[in-house]
From TrEMBL, chain A:
Compartment annotation: Nucleus
A cellular component annotation (GO) from this entry: GINS complex
BP terms from Gene Ontology: mitotic DNA replication initiation
Pfam families: PSF3_N, Sld5
Entry protein name: DNA replication complex GINS protein PSF3
Gene that encodes the chain: gins3
Similarity section: Belongs to the GINS3/PSF3 family.
Subunit relationships: Component of the GINS complex.
Stretches assigned to the GINS subunit domain: 127-223
InterPro entries for the chain: GINS_A (IPR021151), GINS_bundle-like_dom_sf (IPR036224), GINS_Psf3 (IPR010492), GINS_Psf3_sf (IPR038437), PSF3_N (IPR055221)
From TrEMBL, chain B:
Function in brief: Required for correct functioning of the GINS complex, a complex that plays an essential role in the initiation of DNA replication, and progression of DNA replication forks. GINS complex is a core component of CDC45-MCM-GINS (CMG) helicase, the molecular machine that unwinds template DNA during replication, and around which the replisome is built. Required for correct functioning of the GINS complex, a complex that plays an essential role in the initiation of DNA replication, and progression of DNA replication forks. GINS complex seems to bind preferentially to single-stranded DNA.
Family of the protein in this entry: Belongs to the GINS1/PSF1 family.
Top-level taxonomy: Eukaryota, Metazoa, Chordata, Craniata, Vertebrata
Subcellular location: Chromosome; Nucleus
SUPFAM superfamilies assigned: GINS helical bundle-like
GO biological process: DNA strand elongation involved in mitotic DNA replication
Keyword Nucleus: yes
Gene3D superfamilies (UniProt xref): 1.20.58.1030
Subunit structure: Component of the GINS complex.
PANTHER family, per database record: DNA REPLICATION COMPLEX GINS PROTEIN PSF1, PARTNER OF SLD5
Protein's name according to its UniProt entry: DNA replication complex GINS protein PSF1
Domain called DNA replication complex GINS protein PSF1 C-terminal: residue spans: 144-195
Amino acid sequence: MAPKQQGGRVVTQQTRSLLNISVNILGIQLLSTSFGYKMDTLSYLPVQPGVGMEENFLSLDDILLSHERLPIRTECSFPRLGFLEKSSDTKDITEGTKMELPLWLSKGLYEKKRRVLSVELPKIYKEGWRTVFNADPNVVDLHKMGPYYYGLGSQMLHFDSPENPEIAQTLLQTFIGRFRRNMDSSQNAYNEDTSALVERLDCLEKALFTSGQSGLNSFQSWEKGQASQLTASSLVLNYRKRKINDLQP
Amino acid sequence: MFCEKAIELIRELQRMSDGQLPAFNEDGLRQVLQEMEALYEQNQTDVNEAKADGRAELIPSIKLRHCCLLRNQRCLTAYLYDRLLRIRALRWEYGSVLPANVRFHMCAEEVQWFTHYKKSLASFMRSLGGGEGLDITQDMKPPKSLYIEVRCLKDHGEFEIDDGTVILLKKNSQHFLPRWKCEQLIRQGVLEHVMS
């Protein structure tokens, strides 16, 4: 297929391949869970976050992701909304103000012809940090870089920055670079304290890590012959723990 | 910034990612609805002014408030929907009778929804197996034997099994019971499955 030179199609293809990979990985890990039996907590199935540049309307993760703030510059004035801008005490927001707005508001107000606002890239998606990520993705603490590195990066592609192809490429390469180590650690850390492994992961990687761990635990208990043992539902146990905590002063 | 209260509701649910149901935040819901009303009123006056006086520069503010209204709507819908998913999980984990402390966390409409869901599930189960009915909430794990050894974790009183014998479930007593009768109690944590 002949790729378009800039903008839309190449970008979407790259982000789609990024998220195709993670969806396939989730599929593999879910397969390993079905090795023995279903876990109790599979009764509660929350709405999953959206794939790539799309958000799922009802997903709690996507709502929290779109709450992240972005630096923007207004290209027109917003009368009677001066109170939203903390730094100055004006009645209106004037044209050319630099302020921070949450992602959901920026997406809602953004228009292609740039009449309303222009979004500046957060520094982790800019040239400087992109070279760091391209050099060695494994050393970076993605949790500190904003816990939603991949999610926010995919959403930034909505704002038609000229650097979109490079951003998409960096996101993809970072994910691929880190994936091997994450999958390895999630499939081999059995009955250990995993906080050191998890603390540098961003939210997408954490979700993959958790599902890998649950697959590993299911497999191990199947090997021990505990797969046929009926267990109390974990929801019930958690309610009981909370009740005891309420009774204690 | 607008919609802060709405995101608080979402964070409350996200904190309990294992599927537990927190108390229904009626206050929070009311505050979000009040904010939506205030935004709507402001937008109405601005729209009327823009139309009457032809002041087109008010339009970006109108758009911004509209985005806030949509955001609040999204947060509220997601909050209510996620709670319903948790309540649905309760039917599968606890069974049809919920303990009082859990029911206390649900609002009246959610209790009603739970009753409707129970009824739908029950009529579905009755229609399976050629009109004879099949309890699909049983046998969540493939059964290996008809009878299982169980130990009682707490006093549960008397328990009658199919052939009429009454068993007294006292703490730490062990029994050899049919699997289909015990499954519910094991899931509720009253009995413990003992593997020899």
